[in-house]
Amino acid sequence: MNSITDIKGGFTLQNGVKMPYFGLGVWETREGEEVINAVKAALQYGYRHIDTAAVYHNEVGVGKGIRESGIPREDIFLVSKVWNTEQGYDSTIRAFEASLERLGTDYLDLYLIHWPVKGKYRETWRALETLYSEKRVKAIGVSNFLSHHLEDLLDKASVVPMVNQMEFHPYLVQQDLIDYCKDNQIQYEAWSPMMRGRIFTIPELIDLAKKYEKTVAQIVLRWDLQKGVVTIPKSRNKDRIKSNAQVFDFTLSENDVQFLDSLDRNKRFGPHPRAMDFPPLIRKAWNYYIRKSNK
């Protein structure tokens, strides 16, 4: 595994593409100035990995933030995802084209299936394989796929997913799934690493933050990286975006890494991949996006 010493460092995917192990997530970051400023701040502070999705309805702002940052597009690892209602072969190709248009780019560094929609994700994956073979995306992967989803996908896939983006934090480790992904050369990635803000109330994390003279967020994000997990904390606040990235001047002891592992409660704060019971905010965002696109 690569040394975790610099914000511009990364883990190497199975196809040789380097994926920055630290990035900015923009879920719940509003389209327009809010997301533009968040992206520009992140790039100013050295981030080179930006993660969005069609359902976030902020791809236009993400693209504008990248362009206004002055950082060359080729130096940025840009990620988006195909939403559930757009899954299927032809519709995924169209969704990809629409994302490129909104982002103002002619390629993506990583494109993901957002959720494992039953009866759809195999055909969706076939579309991603086509996009990959045409070199329109540098890497392809999945999000929220449990091991049985991956096994089913791999049964027919020509290309093994390069990334699996999952809810991951001290209360939801899923070590068996991490091990499965490692065995199959699938890079594990964390969404919601801060448990939607709940990490700041956990006494054990507060104690570790005092021990290392770091913030609770920095402790958790450093743990992610030392676990070999790509992490994409979201924030709209410039100071927090800067603070979150200050995790390269200390190392957690192996005992403390294992202690953080031991906090696992198999507790989710987002939808379960089996149920895919999405919060009203996600449904509302997607419905708004569809109405706007059809005007």
Automatic annotation (TrEMBL):
<dbReference type="InterPro" id="IPR036812">
    <property type="entry name" value="NAD(P)_OxRdtase_dom_sf"/>
</dbReference>
<protein>
    <submittedName>
        <fullName>Oxidoreductase YtbE</fullName>
    </submittedName>
</protein>
<comment type="similarity">
    <text>Belongs to the aldo/keto reductase family.</text>
</comment>
<keyword id="KW-0560">Oxidoreductase</keyword>
<dbReference type="InterPro" id="IPR044500">
    <property type="entry name" value="AKR5G"/>
</dbReference>
<dbReference type="InterPro" id="IPR020471">
    <property type="entry name" value="AKR"/>
</dbReference>
<dbReference type="Pfam" id="PF00248">
    <property type="entry name" value="Aldo_ket_red"/>
</dbReference>
<keyword id="KW-0521">NADP</keyword>
<feature type="domain" description="NADP-dependent oxidoreductase">
    <location>
        <begin position="25"/>
        <end position="264"/>
    </location>
</feature>
<dbReference type="InterPro" id="IPR018170">
    <property type="entry name" value="Aldo/ket_reductase_CS"/>
</dbReference>
<dbReference type="InterPro" id="IPR023210">
    <property type="entry name" value="NADP_OxRdtase_dom"/>
</dbReference>
